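Researcher: I'd like a structural prediction for the single chain below. Treat it as a standalone chain; there are no partners to consider.
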Amino acid sequence: MDMTCNATRIGLISDTHGTLSDRAVEALRGVDIILHAGDVGGQDILEALRAVAPVEAVRGNMDYGAWAERLPVATMTDINRRFFYLIHDRDRIDLDPPAAGVTAVVFGHTHSPSIELIDNIWYINPGSASHPRHGQDPSIALVLMSDKGLEPRIINFHF
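Model: Treating it as a single chain, here is the predicted structure.
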């Protein structure tokens, strides 16, 4: 997807496991695109997210069935000539992000939100929007992308 506005809002979500709260949907309202980093839990979750914005999604280790087989294990998404590599499990990255020209790696799997900048590449885990672990709140991530670069942040919410 090639978007051409000056500032683009990107919603990141992961590990919904078949549950999508109204709070998660509300937090994503106004984004230009949603990237789902796997463990979706069902086609109905993707349809609900598509009612908010276009969606790119990958299959997680807990996604099974015909609907899940249609999802790639990993994908590269071009948003305004910046490349977002989307994969469920960061340990399964099958390319060299700097060599591939990746701007950000978006992943899930751990259910723990994190944002790291390593060698000029953002590594962003939005956490789990519905099944957080270790006493953490449910969360997503929002990325504001402009000519100045990326400004990612974690958004925590309660059910």
